[in-house]
Structures are given as structure tokens and as C-alpha cells.
Specification:
Layout (H helix, E strand, L loop, with lengths): L11 E7 L5 H9 L17 E7 L3 E7 L7 H15 L4 E6 L7 H12 L4 E5 L15 E3 L8 H12 L18 E5 L13 H12 L3 E5 L4 H6 L7 E4 L4 H7 L6 E3 H9 L2 H7 L11 E5 L11 H14 L4 E5 L13 E4 L7 H13 L4 E3 H8 L3 H4 L4 H5 L3
Parallel strand pairs: 1-3, 1-4, 4-5, 5-6, 7-8, 7-9, 9-10, 11-12, 11-13, 13-14
Antiparallel strand pairs: 2-3
Helix pairs in contact: 10-12
Length: 400
Amino acid sequence: MSLENTPSSERIHISFFGKRNAGKSSLVNRVTGQNLSVVSDVLGTTTDPVRKSMELLPLGPVVIIDTPGFDDEGSLGDLRVEKTREILSKTHIAVFVCADNDMDDEITQEFIKLTKEKNIPYIIAHNKADLMDNIPEGKDNEIWVSATEGINIDALKELLGSLAKNIKTDKPLLGDLITKEDVIILVTPIDESAPKGRLILPQQQTIRDILDNNAICMVCQTENLKTSIDSLSKKPKMVITDSQAFGMVSKIVPKDIPLTSFSILFARYKGDLISQVKGAAMLSKLCDGDTILISEGCTHHRQCGDIGTVKLPKWIKEFSGADIKFDFTSGGEFPKDLSKYKLVVHCGACMLNSQEMKSRLEKAKKSDVPMTNYGVAIAHTKGILKRSLEIFPEALKILE
């Protein structure tokens, strides 16, 4: 996969924050070498976050985000500031663009404090250095730049690159579970909700990870699974299935062959599998009138057989025997207040970066609301959770 085709969720997200007219948009345009953001002397020119996926040396594939000023005013201004706060939850590196005495400003200090609390590495970029008689030398995470004259732009990129090296975005998907020439079977049902002419992103990424580890991948639908297994001269290393087919697939795959799902793999890859296994215990404690939030990280056209809004609620109701209420969110939407929910059931988060998934898990933890994952929840309702976690000993311990 080329750098240009790297999914947004796999890129380092660099966000530029600051007060209105600090020069954020001008600096973003300088760093990207493009007129990405509209520049004007009028306060509040940037009204919504502006994103650009690109290759930025020496960092590689990144998403650059320009944000509205966090000192915006009025009812619309408050909404823009809230959007800016939301961007922080998906940011790997924050760049605070300051002009004049912005660093002494209470709002600026509040945002920097919030960034520290989230353990997000940040840079303070003092803009308009071209107006200074003597430009101070950069130190630690602080640098003096000029978006107008291009002063220290390359140095800023180098500083971003040095911070990026310390960001752990490469958790293993399968690499620590398979070895060279292992055979892995992927079960990918093609039903009414499957996209036409392509596989969904988790399936694509899993195939690529298998190939990257010099292993062998076999892909089939549920009805071809037994034939696929029987055609092999040796047992497959494991079978990975779409979660919605767990029930049927578990009856076909012999007990001595490990079985898990794409969603469970991504629970570990993007978030915290152990906490989401713990969260699944709430499924056995649900009562009439309880409300569950089902959250997807992407937006797509809902179909009659949609897993999140149709199948999962049906299976949870059947398993619990309770009259459960469900709320649904998708894409970047995630409630600030989770207190009304007994449980959050989240998708595999293939379209979210690990930083945003971590933020959602932390929000649930602070609200004392358990969170689990589509695959974990479905395996639990089908009575095969232990089996689906056999390749993850630490997670399996929780159930013993």
C-alpha cells in the first residue's frame, strides 16, 4: 500500500491549535506546502476543522488538522471551540501556534494543561518571528517561526519528526501470533450489508498483515469453510471470522483449531482488549429498561441486515431476556455524558485512530460505564467467548 493510500486511521494526526489570528492557517499552509486553509485578517476565518491527508517528510503518512481558534466567542463560537476540543481526542501531536503574549493567556494555558493530562506530545510554535530583531533559538518543544517568511519551517518539521518517532502506533495486529508459512483462514460473509466489489477495511488490513509476516492467507465464505479446511495438507494456524458469522463458523471449525474474529483482533490493535472483555460481563446483568449505547466509528448507509443497528440488538435481547433500549452513534459522534448507559458496545474502530479509541475508552472508564466490543459481545452471546480468546492468554485469564 502506497503512502498516499494509507488509511487515515493508520496515519499520525498532527493538529494545529491556537487563538484566532495567531497564524495557525498560514503556518499549516507553509508546513504542507499547499493552500489548505483560507487565510484572512478577519477573526475566526477557520470555522470548522480542516483536514489534509498527505506524506510529510520526515514523518511519512500524516493527517494535518487546522482548527478554529479556541478563543472564539458567541453561541457559534462556543460550538467551534467544542469541535476543537474534540479534535484533541484524536491528536497524536499538538502544535500550539502563539503570537504576541498568547502563552500568558488563560485559555492557552488551559488547552496546554488538557494536552498534558492526555499525555499528548506538543510543540509551542511562536509565530511572526519575522517581526523580531533577534530570533531566539529553539529549545525542547519550543520554536520560533514565521509563516509569512518561512523562517524555521524545516526546523519545525524536524521537531515534529522527532516527536513522531516516540509515538507507538504500530501495535501488532497478527504479527506476534503467526510465523512464516502459517496458514490463516479468513471467513468473510458476502451478504446484503457487504460493500460491492471490495472487502471491508479490517479484512483488507488483516490480509496485508498476514502477507507482511510471510504467512499464507485463504479467504472464503461461511458455506465454503469446511471445504477450505479439508483441502489443506496441514491444520491452519487459526480461523478469523466476521463476528456476525461466529455462531455458524464455531460449529464448523474443529475445536483444536483456534478461532477468533476481526473485531476481537481490532479490539486489541486499536484499544484495550482486556477491559473490553471485562465489559462483556455486563451482558449477563442487564435488566428491563436498561439502555445500551452501540457506537460505530464510521458512517455508512444502514441496510436491513445491519450488524450494529439490527443484528447486535436482536442477539443482546435474546441473550439477556430483558427489554433493552438502544441508542446509536456513528462516525465522530460520541456522547460527552455516558451516565445513562449500562453498557457501551463499540465496533472494531478500524476507521478511528488508536488515540481516539483510547479517548473513548477513558471516557467510559471515568463515567464508570463498562465498554465492550462487537466481536467480544457477539462471542459472549453465542457462548463461545472463551474459545475466541484462546490465542490471547491474558484476556482469557479474566474468564477463569
